Amino acid sequence: MADYVAQTVARAGTWSDSFELCVLTYDERFLRRKVIQTVHDEDLLVDLPQTTSLNHRDAFVLTDGRLIEVVAASEDLYAVTGPLVQLAWHIGNRHTPCQIEDTRLLIQRDKVIGHMLEHLGATVTPVVEPFTPEGGAYGHGRTHAHDHGHSAHHDH
User: Fold this and answer.
1) How far is CA 144 from CA 55, 69, 95, 149, 150, in A?
2) What is the domain range of residue 63?
3) Same domain for 79 and 124?
4) Domain CATH number, residue 52
5) How far apart are CA 73 and CA 131, in angstroms?
6) Under 8 Å between Cβ of 56 and 132
7) 65 has a pLDDT exceeding 60
8) pLDDT band at residue 9, thresholds of 50, 70 and 90?
């Protein structure tokens, strides 16, 4: 039996006062029904009515009304610099999640895309930091069609 059960989500900025955290990667923040671990190793059963893309600082609303905050985990990314508009177009054209910033783009590490971007004149630097592409042009409405089995890599 899970320690906690959440069936709804409160979006970032609409809530305050969480009592617990869970730190999730970008792929892990796309879920409907799943048991996840909180930072204190408690089991949280997430059982949402539909598959939901969670953002950094959203919160799971427990059945007793308490809140568990969602924090974007640090993960292995590429920081991409160069002609950003052109590079962002090529990244978006491949349905690759992309965090768009003023001076750089962040994408999940993928050697094939990294090499392609270098050929287009990009500088591609490995970094480890939270990945929050939801604010970018390609974040909303992500679907299973673009999830090429990444969830299979998680062994909890």
Assistant:
1) 17, 24, 12, 9, 10
2) 4-72
3) yes
4) 2.60.260.20
5) 7
6) yes
7) yes
8) very high
Express each pLDDT in 15-50 by its tens digit. 999 999 999 999 999 999 999 999 999 999 999 999
Give the count of domains, the chain: 2
Strand order across the 30-37 sheet: 20-24, 67-72, 59-62, 4-10, 43-53, 30-37
pLDDT digits (tens, 9 = 90+) for 82-135: 999 999 999 989 988 999 999 999 999 999 999 999 999 999 999 999 999 865
Which two structure tokens, joined as six digits, stand for 103? 């001076």
Q: In the block, which residue shows the tokens 């508009």?
A: 85
DSSP for 29-42, written as a single string? GEEEEEEEE-TTS-
- Which one-letter DSSP state was computed for residue 117? H
Q: What pTM does this model have?
A: 0.80
Judge if 85 and 68 occupy the same domain: no
Distances (CA, A) of 132 to 43, 47, 74: 24, 23, 10
List all residues 6 or more positions away from 85 whose beta carbon is below 8 Å from its beta carbon.
none
Q: Which of 63, 61, 23 is nearest to 40 (CA)?
A: 23
